[in-house]
Amino acid sequence: MFKKYQYHIVLHLIIFMWGFTGILGKLIQLPPLSIVWYRILIAFFSLLAGLYFLKMPMKILDKKSFFQTLGVGLIVTLHWLTFYKSISLSTASLGILCLSTTTLHVTWLEPLLTGKKFSFVEFIMGLLVVIGIYIVSDNFSQKEFLALTYGLGSALCAALFSIFNAQIAKKVPSSAMSLHEMGIGLVALSVVLLFQGKFTSSFFSMTISDFLWLLFLGILCTSVAFLVTIEVLKKLGAFTVSLSINLEPVYTILLAVFILQEHTLLSSRFYMGAWVIILVLLLNAVVKNRMGRRD
């Protein structure tokens, strides 16, 4: 029985860990820039070790693909920066809810960037998500609107790197692609921090709790999650994985309620709008699957 569903269980453990990334934005007592730098630093070196040990591809031989991958790595870095900035300004629930709109951003970006045929069904789905966001943002303060802006910007970046990665992955092994994306993110952020004069003793000073949470974020939630997801994709297929990933905001909101007590900060309208968005995302995945089967 367990063997039959073991990959499903592993997949949901990974998604649960991803749901934890938003919570960590609140638990780690460091500014967003520091959190992202440490996350990429730890992820890069743990991924490097993992790929070496598993003898997975690490090089990008095609010059054009190499520079394209570096460009996408910068988008990934911007995605994480805006995501944790959104959480720092508001709540983990709002940050992950904004991020859950990534799938819908993809639906209007793909026709523009890849020439994919425009889908009216996906357009309607997008409008329903806008309604959900309107319900969520009712009576927001100026600070919360700023958090919403950063959160939606983060989702836009996530959609962009998803589209570009899908194109690059046709020519480059996903392992090498991820390693290079982490590498350029680490270099870019290090240069920014260096010019800002942030590399001082205080930058490297943190509590034991912050250090352990950063290890969890960088190793388990990033590099290990990536390596395991590759294997799960091979066994379960892209649709099952993408459909399950839509449950990430559910896990995050539940964790935020129990760990951060965010239910005391959020109104019933927030949860009403949140469920509208989550249901639209699940419906979108089901509709795409049925349309794909007809094709």
* Helix run count: 12
Q: Write down the overall geometry.
A: globular
Structural class assignment: mainly alpha
| Fraction in beta strands | under 5%
Q: Level of helix content? A: over 70%
Helix-strand sequence: HHHHHHHHHHHH
- Output the radius of gyration: 19 Å
- End-to-end separation in angstroms reads 34 Å
The count of domains is 1
Determine the mean pLDDT. 84
- Tell how many strands the DSSP assignment holds: 0
Q: Indicate the low-confidence ranges by residue numbers.
A: none
Biggest beta-sheet profile: none
Q: Can you tell me about this structure?
A:
With 295 residues, the chain is an all-alpha fold. The chain has one domain. Helix content is 81%, strand content 0%. Helix 2 (32-54) crosses helix 3 (63-89), helix 3 (63-89) packs antiparallel against helix 7 and helix 4 (92-99) runs antiparallel to helix 11 (248-259). The longest helix is centred in the C-terminal third of the chain and has 29 residues, at 208-236. The model has no long low-confidence stretch (mean pLDDT 84).
Write a concise keyword list for the protein shown above:
295 residues, 81% helix, mainly alpha
What's the quick description here?
The chain is mainly alpha-helical and 295 residues long. It has helices spanning 2-27, 32-54, 63-89, 92-99, 102-114, 120-136, 142-168, 174-195, 208-236, 238-245, 248-259, 268-294. The protein has one domain.
